[in-house]
Design brief:
- This protein is mainly alpha-helical.
- It has one domain.
- Helix 1 runs antiparallel to helix 3.
- The model has no long low-confidence stretch (mean pLDDT 94).
- It holds the Pfam family DUF5316.
- InterPro entries: DUF5316 (IPR035167).
- Keywords: Membrane, Transmembrane, Transmembrane helix.
Length: 67
Amino acid sequence: MQIFIYIGLGFFIIAGICVGAFTTGTQQRGNFYSESKRDRKAKNKVANWSALGGLISLAIAGILYLL
């Protein structure tokens, strides 16, 4: 069960890095204007799939805990 928790947290960290959640506003504006729309779209796609993987992994951990 703990492995699913760690995997879920890892996915959420990856998603946070991809969307720039751990940067300041100034850094995020600089990153936004320095990358192309194609790169932004790819990063958002990775972030969305990582967040979905994190939710699924944490859901599995929760189900295993209840069993």
